[in-house]
């Protein structure tokens, strides 16, 4: 019996192996060049294969729909004659990267369009010679309205430039909205306080939130400020403490490479002297109970829980964070959240935070020869952001918008067929994030200036909740505090061997100082060791990369000037 | 004849991939393949020992893994013996099932629960403070308690699985031994000591030997989901160290070198254990 099942198992596995070997030739028929573009539609239809990292919002489909057969893929075939087919699929970032690496060994075919989220992998792909150089393609085929967008973000090309040639392009580059400070307005009101704008005022507020019973239940069960220090002291999205560091270091925020004005060189933010004062402050606050006691063990998403449960009074995050913590307003009578700008630094300057310009880049397989079709499709996806064409309100009625009694609605609960949450069609078949235009919440700012919500994107923005809207307006007004890291190339040689040791040391030192497990002087020791154990070498390599990157002009050869 | 599929299976899936081990001696680039990548001798192995973080990780791995192996053998044996003495079938079966269940949970889930339960405001600390009036203990953030937390939670999750093997062994002991012991006037305790344990010994040796092979596996899933910068000094193990320093950067050669290093150490230990078992207990495993 056992032997028999072994034979069966072996047979199945052998069959699997053979099928795997046979799979190689499969895609070639799709590359036919005989297809022509007639009235904006390919006939016969062309197929573009793509790799996809399935993020949590993109994995949900209506019954009967799937990754390769949904409202958007059908729309593509019917209207453009372009069939998008996902042939390389990965769950989380690590799994997706591993699949791409395997494809590099030649055991699997690379899809035509390859979204890549890791700078090392971008470099490997370029080195392998299996991705296409697209300098000319961008010049010839990129539609003008997209060129206008890419012109604004020249630095996003840095990771995909090799010897003056361009091997990829950012996925929907846009200055993503920055973080705002969410505060329990009812607590401020109960204690007769104003929202803090400086570090001293911030300290007074969090001290009062901890000691003066802001929720009036005669129990000491609240505290001031929740954030996460598990993975980084510059999380960049929610539960971020970076504002406190920037108050003392200015533009040299932790984990970021910024220009030192005196030397004209890039320097690493985490070793800036100002961090010592920031750590001293946080250490003091921690010992007084003003901070999340478990900030070292809670990741960024876990650290929002204390705010959502009404234990903490202040949290910093992107404006949409409001939707994730709004439960506190329904669960606790009288609770009210307001959005405020982050505080100012000790010198009176604003505090800075990390900017995100793009999430990954598109790269293209060497044998993909239909860039025109790619750009046609990609441009159409931008219709939703521009509020034009087929997608003027959203991608599909009944999915991400609906029309009820001649009125466009974006609240999924008010749809003709009510749903719990929107179907994010923009994420379904092509990009991980829906393409967006306009800096950091500009639509919300325009609305606040009294612009009529007469286009799809403005109507969608207008449907957001008041506090979130206010947050987006604040983030737009403070968009000059958003700093992209100036080093976005592949890890340098010394980084590959030493970077991990240095970041481990950094995280350990920062956290132990805040917890009071090590004296404040440990920071000086850390800075000294950082420089000695490869940090100086890395700084040199990073600056070498930077001066090369700023010397090469690829923008004009792509027609983006 | 009937062996052939199994042999083919082993050749393809166990011996075939071993070719990849040469990566450990190369600066491997996937697009150049095994034949095209540059040979760099033992550089990858040197890197394992180059940083203090790495030696600390090896020490942590050994301490955590050895503690896990020791308690992971003793506790299931004790529990199996205790349970086999329970007469009520209902209680026996339900205890067996209950302790076996956590084995099926993934560490991601368990870690999420543990972070809540073991937090400063969590259930365990709540009980401890109300019973003893002590200060809350930061189980996951204190280097001195982290290893114990790891070992005990692993034990809780997995001892039910080990126990079942021993229960089966006990059930397989010839009842005439017990009858003979009873006739000679042995008490229950003496029966356990002189009949049950000796009969379990071969199984204990097999399992202990096999476990020795995992002496450098301190449990990546578990630690990766539970550790944080506060406990790197006692909690960072080889696997998490390698994950952070090589896999995230696509350093194939280094990763393979560590894997090979671990396998060689395990192989040596298994061979030693095998010899010892033969010499001391006169028992041949294979």
Automatic annotation (TrEMBL), chain A:
Residues 1-19 form the signal peptide. Gene3D superfamilies: Periplasmic binding protein-like II. InterPro entries: Bact_solute-bd_prot1. The keyword tRNA processing does not apply. Keywords: Signal. SUPFAM superfamilies: Periplasmic binding protein-like II (SSF53850). This is ABC transporter substrate-binding protein. It comes from Paenibacillus montaniterrae. The lineage of its organism: Bacteria, Bacillati, Bacillota, Bacilli, Bacillales.
């Amino acid at each position: 019996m056992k032997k028999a099942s072994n034979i069966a198992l072996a047979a199945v596995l052998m069959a699997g192996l053979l099928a795997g070997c046979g799979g190689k030739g499969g895609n070639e028929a799709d590359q036919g060049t005989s297809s022509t573009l007639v009235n904006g539609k390919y006939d016969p239809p062309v197929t573009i294969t793509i790799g996809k990292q399935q993020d949590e919002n993109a994995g949900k489909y209506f019954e009967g729909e799937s990754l390769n057969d949904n409202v958007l893929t059908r729309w593509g075939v019917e209207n453009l004659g372009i069939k998008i087919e996902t042939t390389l699929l990965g769950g989380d970032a690590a799994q997706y990267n591993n699949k791409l690496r395997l494809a590099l060994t030649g055991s699997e075919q690379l899809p035509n369009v390859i979204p890549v989220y890791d700078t090392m992998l971008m470099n490997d792909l370029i080195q392998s010679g299996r991705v296409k150089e697209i300098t000319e393609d961008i010049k010839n085929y990129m539609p003008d309205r997209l060129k206008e967008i890419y012109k604004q973000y020249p630095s996003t090309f840095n990771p995909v430039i090799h010897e003056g040639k361009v091997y990829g392009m950012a996925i929907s580059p846009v200055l993503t909205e920055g973080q705002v400070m969410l505060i329990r307005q009812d607590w401020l009101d109960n204690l007769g306080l104003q929202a803090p704008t400086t570090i001293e005022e911030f300290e007074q507020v969090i001290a009062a939130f901890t000691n003066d019973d802001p929720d009036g239940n005669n129990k000491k069960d609240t505290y001031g400020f929740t954030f996460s220090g598990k993975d980084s002291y510059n999380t960049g999205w929610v539960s971020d403490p970076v504002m406190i560091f920037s108050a003392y270091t200015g533009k040299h925020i932790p984990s970021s490479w910024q220009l030192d004005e005196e030397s004209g060189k890039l320097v690493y933010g985490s070793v800036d002297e100002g961090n010592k004062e920031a750590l001293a402050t946080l250490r003091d606050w921690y010992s007084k109970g003003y901070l999340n006691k478990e900030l070292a063990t809670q990741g960024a998403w876990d650290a929002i829980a204390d705010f959502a449960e009404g234990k903490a009074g202040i949290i910093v995050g992107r404006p949409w964070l409001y939707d994730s913590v709004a439960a506190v307003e329904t669960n606790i009578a009288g609770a009210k959240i307001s959005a405020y700008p982050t505080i100012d630094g000790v010198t009176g300057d604003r505090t800075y935070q990390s900017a995100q310009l793009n999430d990954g880049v598109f790269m293209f397989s060497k044998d993909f020869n239909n860039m025109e079709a790619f750009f046609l499709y990609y441009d159409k996806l931008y219709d939703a952001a521009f509020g034009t064409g087929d997608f003027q309100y959203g991608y599909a009625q009944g999915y991400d918008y609906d029309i009820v009694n001649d009125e466009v609605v974006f609240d999924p609960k008010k749809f003709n067929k009510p749903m719990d949450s929107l179907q994010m069609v923009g994420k379904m078949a092509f990009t991980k994030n829906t393409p967006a235009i306009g800096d950091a919440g500009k639509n919300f700012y325009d609305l606040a200036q009294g612009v009529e919500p007469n286009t799809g994107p403005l109507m969608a923005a207008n449907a957001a909740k008041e506090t979130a809207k206010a947050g987006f307006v604040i983030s737009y007004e403070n968009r000059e505090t958003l700093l992209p890291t100036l080093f976005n190339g592949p890890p340098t040689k010394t980084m590959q061997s030493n970077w991990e040791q240095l970041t481990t040391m950094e995280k350990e030192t920062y956290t132990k100082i805040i917890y009071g497990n090590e004296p404040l002087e440990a920071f000086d020791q850390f800075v000294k060791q950082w420089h000695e154990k490869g940090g100086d070498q890395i700084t040199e390599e990073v600056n070498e990369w930077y001066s090369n990157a700023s010397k090469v002009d690829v923008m004009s050869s792509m027609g983006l000037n | 004849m009937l062996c052939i599929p199994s042999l083919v299976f082993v050749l393809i899936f166990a011996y075939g991939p071993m070719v990849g081990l040469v990566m450990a001696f190369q600066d491997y680039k996937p697009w150049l393949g095994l034949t095209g990548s540059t040979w760099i001798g033992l550089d990858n192995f040197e890197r394992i020992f180059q940083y203090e973080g790495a030696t600390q990780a090896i020490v942590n791995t050994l301490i955590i893994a050895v503690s896990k192996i020791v308690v992971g053998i003793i506790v299931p044996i004790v529990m199996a013996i205790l349970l086999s003495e329970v007469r009520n079938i209902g209680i026996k079966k339900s205890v067996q099932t209950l302790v076996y269940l956590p084995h099926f949970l993934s560490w991601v889930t368990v870690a999420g629960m543990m972070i809540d339960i073991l937090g400063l405001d969590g259930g365990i600390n709540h009980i401890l403070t109300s019973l003893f009036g002590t200060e809350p203990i930061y189980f996951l953030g204190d280097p001195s308690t982290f290893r114990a937390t790891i070992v005990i939670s692993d034990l809780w999750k997995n001892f039910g699985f080990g126990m079942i093997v021993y229960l089966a062994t006990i059930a397989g002991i010839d009842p005439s031994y017990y009858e003979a012991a009873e006739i000679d006037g042995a008490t229950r305790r003496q029966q356990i000591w002189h009949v049950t344990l000796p009969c379990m010994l071969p199984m204990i040796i097999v399992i202990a030997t096999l476990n020795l092979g995992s002496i450098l596996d301190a449990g990546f899933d578990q630690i990766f989901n539970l550790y944080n910068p506060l406990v790197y000094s006692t909690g960072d193990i080889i696997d998490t160290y390698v994950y952070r320093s090589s896999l995230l950067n696509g350093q194939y050669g280094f990763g393979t070198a560590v894997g090979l290093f671990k396998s060689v150490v395990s192989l040596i230990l298994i061979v030693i254990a095998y010899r010892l078992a033969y010499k001391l207990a006169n028992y041949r495993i294979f």
